[in-house]
Each structure stands twice: as structure tokens, then as C-alpha cells.
Amino acid sequence: MIPVVMPVYNRADVVFERGEGPYLFDTAGRRYLDFAAGVAVVALGHSHPHLVNALVEQGRKLWHTSNLYRVAGQESLAQRLVDATFADTVFFTNSGVEAWECSVKVCRKYQYETGNPQRWRIITFQQNFHGRTTSAIAASKAEKMVKGFGPVTDGFDMVAFGNLNEVRAAITDETAAICVEPIQGEGGIRVGDTDFLKGLRAVCDEFGLLLFMDEIQTGMGRTGKLFAHEWAGVTPDVMAVAKGIGGGFPLGACLATEKAAVGMTPGTHGSTYGGNPLATAIGNAVLDVMLAPGFLQGVEKVGRTLHRRLAGLVDAHPQVYGGVRGHGLMLGLECVPANTAVVDRLRANGMLAVAAGDNVVRLLPPLIIDEAQVDEAVAILGKTAQELVG
Predict the structure, then answer these.
(1) Catalytic residue at 214?
(2) pLDDT tens digits for 185-198?
(3) 353-369: b (≥16 Cβ within 10 Å) or e
(4) Residues 35, 129, 196, 227: which is the catalytic one?
């Protein structure tokens, strides 16, 4: 008999009942160090007081009106995002893949409106992950996501991540944009280096394409900058954002330049729930914290410390850990045994992490961790390594 909750996840047999900062507590009262953060979502930790206050205050006043009317929280949050980024305009969504879908539409409509209606295809990269809609799985082409869901939506041409020669070779008269994650999360914390990202910008400028960044996982302070592309000094035309933007509340956004959004006029896109008063009140509260002086610098500092300590673990336990990848607090440990076995053992030892491609364990802690939690994580990772080889 099928479970009442559709069985599309292999869920761990644990139920969490409350959270506090970087910790979760299960129904038996056991505490876990949360270095998964809901897959990079709970950016400010669990039950952050400022976010809770924003939720309660707005919840007592107004939850939802629809986008048939102005939403004050949308306007203020959009202005703050515009002021802090390359963008001129923002569309709010409920999830990352909705933000990504909106961004795809922006790219195609731009080409249509500027006299190139034949340009509609988007170049993507091997081991990408943009979500689970039929378009997003088509952009991935991974068998585990597309099998049984065909025919696969056309319009995406995939090349090797980091290979500018393959990018150039894939461009045709039908190419509209290039979509890239600055760091591939699900793909295994694979970092796009500065030369690669700058090269993509140059290629887009040369061929009249839009540079479309997927910063759903890499954005909102995760790498020590508000958005990861800032490290390379490049400017996208369109960007999909979610996860940390709501600190755990469902919220996403498509950010675009005025040039790129030229075709996005009344009736071209919409969302019933997207950017409602409750979501944008929390989004504004998240920015209150993230844009405060010193916050992002603190993320970068503790990220460097964690990276250094993980490198020490690799040296101490080469039979279990093969290397460290990533930037800021978006880090990955290459594993020698199956990464799922490492994740399971970590959980048994009171720490949560996330498996990824390339046999990597993702470490995505809340951005509010300090060196005490780094010490705790390293101790658990060390204990786990000893158990796995013992």
C-alpha cells in the first residue's frame, strides 16, 4: 500500500520537533548539529528571533492579497535587492525552480523582443541541478531525473562545466542564453573559477546572449558575498535566487537588468502566492541581518577556518576523506567510501550533512555558526572517520 505521503524521498527515520540556532532536536530530545540547514535554506539558523518577530508581526496583520494589488513588502524587498546587486527589477516566487522558470522566460522574451525570435535555446552544464519541473530536468538531462518523464522538453544544450571551448562550439543561431551555477551544489560542490565565469560573460557579450546565473544555492551570503558571482567580478543579466532568501520560509526571486526584462510586461508572467506580505516581511528580515555591517565578512572568516580544519581532516583520515571543495560555507568533502554511508554515520553521531554528486558530502551550515560549532563539526567528522575504518 502506498504511504499517505508520496514516497519520492528515501527519508531518514528521524522527526525533528524544534530548532535553535545551528541545532535541531528530534522527538526523543536528541540534539543534532545542523550542517545541512535544510539544504542551504535555513541561512540564519533555526527560529532566529528577528525572523520569528517578523513572522508573528506580519502574521497578525495580513498574510495574502494576491498580485492584483500592490504589496508594500515586495516593493521594499525588491528595492533592497536592486540596491545590493546588478539588477533593476525583481519578480518574487515561492521556490527556486519557479525563479529559474521565470528566468528562462525572461531570456527567451528578451531575444523575441529585440528582433531575434529564433533564439530560444539555453546552454547548460553537465552535473547541473536547477530543480524538478519538466523544463528543469530537461536542462539537466540526468537519467535519474528524466527517466519515465518523457518526452523531454527541448531547448537545452549541455556542455562540460568549466570548458569555454565547448561553450563556443555549442552556440548556434538559436542560442538565447547561457545558464550556470557559479558553484554546482547538487553536482558535487564544483567551483566555477574566475576565468571560466569571466569567459562566459565575454562570450555572451560577443554573441548577443544573456548570462543567466542560477544562485539558488550559492546566493544569499552562502560564500561570504551576497552572491557568489561577485567573487569573479562578473555581472549577470538574469539571476534565479531562493533557499536562504527566506531563511526557511518559501520564497524565491528572479532578478534582471532593465535590458533583459524588456519583454516582461503585464500578462507575460504571474504567481498567485509569489511575494505575498508574509513571505516578503520575512525576506526583509533576512536582509536586515545579512546586510548588517560585518555579517558577510564573518561568514567568509568562519568559512576559511572550516575549510582549513577540513583539510586537516583529509590529511588525518585519507581512507575516508579525499579532499575539500567549495567556498565560504558551501563546502564539500570528497569521500572514499560511499558518501551516503558517511552521511548516515554522521547523523548517528549527531550531525546532519547532505550527499551530492561526485561522491561528495555537502556541508552547508547556517551562516551564523562560530568557531565553537566548527570545532564540534570537526570532532564528529573525525569520530565518524575512525568508525568507518575501524
Answers:
(1) yes
(2) 999 999 999 999 99
(3) bbbbbebbbbbbbbbbb
(4) 129
